[in-house]
């Protein structure tokens, strides 16, 4: 499904959570939506899922707006950090409700994932541990098979092994049936290899939208003495420079392989670091 974000703004009282954001997401891909705390990621995902209204601008999904549009929201599943489900419901009833809501619901996958995460179908949501509640969210998100599936920090309380399994299953499912997956996380290093495209927000604005492979191949860090690095970056597009004890590292937009072939001390920049450099607050 095509998602067009047009001059989107959201204001909470005096707070501008989103400031005039525009971009388009074309077709099924795994997108990483990144940014510091308070950058506007959750606000954006809630507008996209039709759960809240924008203040200005709009999001069009195949030409339609999601708010109050049940036919469209049947194609969108947003799993948040917590409190996705009513506390008094049993796990099996949560699954039943979502299976009625999503025409694309995959019962077999839901059953397999229940086994995988060892969830008790008769347990009430309020008796689940944080990790188990997250597992239920992950199961609903994956089994919904919604053409737009959004995970907003979906794994609070899940241990490293359970998170790893989630990433593996997500990828397996995506490979068998492509859909748009938007993944927001602060554990970027863990997940970044899944991302096909990276979107970075900073304080309500879009600072970057780029294919992950292009980012990996076209950004690098070069290190050396201050004069060496200064001379090298003179005609380059620099993201950031850092100095320590007479040495300098510059983070640069440019071809990684080309820089390597010149015998310089260069290395790729992990996406997590790139996000940090690009969103470093002035004066911080
Ligand atoms: N319901 C609300 N009422 C008032 N302000 C809000 C509300 N929801 C979000 N905000 C504010 O809007 C800004 C963006 O918040 P949002 O939750 O969208 O950011 P985020 O990028 O998801 O942050 P995090 O990574 O910490 O989850 C923040 O300054 C936040 O305090």
Automatic annotation (TrEMBL):
Keyword Flavoprotein: no
Keyword Kinase among UniProt keywords: no
Domain of life: Bacteria
Keywords: ATP-binding, Nucleotide-binding
GO molecular function terms noted in the UniProt entry: ATP binding
Pfam families: ABC_tran (PF00005)
All copies of domain ABC transporter, residue ranges: 3-228
PANTHER family: ABC TRANSPORTER, ATP-BINDING PROTEIN, SKFA PEPTIDE EXPORT ATP-BINDING PROTEIN SKFE
The protein's name in its UniProt record: ABC transporter ATP-binding protein
Protein species of origin: Ornithinibacillus salinisoli
Lineage of producing organism: Bacteria, Bacillati, Bacillota, Bacilli, Bacillales
